[in-house]
Amino acid sequence: MATGQAVGGAAQGRLGPLAFHAATLATFFAASAAPTPLYRIYGETFALSPVFVTLIFAVYAVALLSALLVAGSLSDHLGRRPVILSALLLEGLAMGLFLMVHRGPGWLIAARIVQGVATGIAGAALGAALLDADRDRGALVNAIAPLGGMAAGALGTSALIQYGPLPLHLVYGLLLCAFAALAAGLWRVPETAVRRPGATPRTILAALRPRVAVPPRARRALVLVTPINLANWTLGGFYLSLVPSLVVSATGSPAPLTGGAVVTALMLAGAVAVFLRRAVPADGNLAFGVIATALGVLTVVAGIHAASVPVLILGTLLTGSGFGTSFLGCVGTIMPLAGADERAGLLAAFYVQSYLAFSLPAVLAGFLARTLGYGPTADLYAAAIVAVALAGLAGLRLGSARDAAAR
Predict the structure, then answer these.
(1) What CATH number should be reported for the domain whose range is 212-407?
(2) Distances in Å between the alpha carbon of 172 and those of 85, 93, 121, 244, 330?
(3) Span(s) in the chain for CATH 1.20.1250.20
């Protein structure tokens, strides 16, 4: 496989693949978070229930997971650039559908499904392209760019809603222009992968079959980190679906920037934590992540009951640092146990678990919010997340103690 450095020096005037693909990945995830500050406005405009709002969020996550599983290795056969271009075109279509949302909530569901498919395809191809360009820095960008992009998307959309015109349209128009520019610039970026020889329609169709497999050596480790991973992604799904509405309900502040700032704090703190703790052993990251998440969630609950935005943001910063570090610890625990030819199947299994926890509990939260209200729903979710995460950490400690005793 050709490296980005080798190909990148072949012609003048070309864009560096690492920087371009990092910016593209961040833009995809910024767009994925753009609807979050708008969910409350959609709910008010179309009289949507919290259940419908969380359904809009869930269909995106399921579509993304499906695309990631089906098209995960497609760029190995077709090349990175054609697959990335397809994702950019699909994302442009999704932005167009978002611009039609004023016609009814059905357009919102359609837009989120198309956006999920586009983001899943892009995530796989861009992630591989970043590793082609620079294996060490590419891995770091793959961990940080999605979180940084979502932080920028949530905050930027909130600012546009609060200070700009056309709150239901402006952000999507700007993103449509951004994706068009990225599609045009893609052809100034060298191809970072060599297509597999002998690619035929049959081999390409075979590549589209999802491969989900957990190597025997990694099964116990995956079981042990599962409670922490489920709690982590359930937390992320709750923030990205209902937190802006929760902030308004708890604090009485209708300013979009308030809810957007809380969501941004989670993602930004997660990105910073990943960067700062990238060299820490996995067991240390898991312990730190669970404790930070538990303290942060309890602080968030206190902020809700005190109707204090500063306390909410402080709690979210703690929670976000735990969110990013727990993710880092989970991946660092299981991935070293897989061989080179087993990593894709193991990562697919991990993401199936993660995105189901990201989406399905959010729908349950919508039902609870409709029945009980946002405050009691947050209390129940906080208790469940803290209990499951702490139980997972206790299980890890017990497993480690048994392993030490057996030696």
Answers:
(1) 1.20.1250.20
(2) 19, 11, 20, 19, 34
(3) 7-210, 212-407
Q: What is the pLDDT along the chain (407 residues), one digit of tens a residue?
A: 344 443 444 444 567 899 999 999 999 999 999 999 999 999 989 999 999 999 999 999 999 999 988 877 778 778 889 999 999 999 999 999 999 998 999 999 999 999 999 999 999 889 888 988 888 888 889 889 999 999 999 999 999 999 999 999 999 999 999 999 999 999 899 888 766 555 566 666 666 676 777 889 999 999 999 999 999 999 999 999 999 999 999 988 888 999 999 999 999 999 999 999 999 999 999 999 999 999 999 999 999 999 999 999 999 999 999 999 999 999 999 989 988 667 777 888 898 999 999 999 999 999 999 999 999 999 999 999 999 999 999 999 898 877 777 76
CA distance 269 to 286: 16
CA distance 356 to 340: 26
Cα–Cα distance measured from residue 386 to residue 295, given in angstroms and rounded to the nearest whole number: 9
Whole-structure pTM value: 0.89
**Cβ–Cβ < 8 Å for 387, 260:** no
CATH tag, 7-210: 1.20.1250.20
Tokens 């708890």 belong to residue? 250
Question: How many other CB atoms are found less than 10 A from the CB of residue 42?
Answer: 18
Q: Are 316 and 262 in contact (CB under 8 A)?
A: yes
Q: Are 20 and 185 in contact (CB under 8 A)?
A: yes
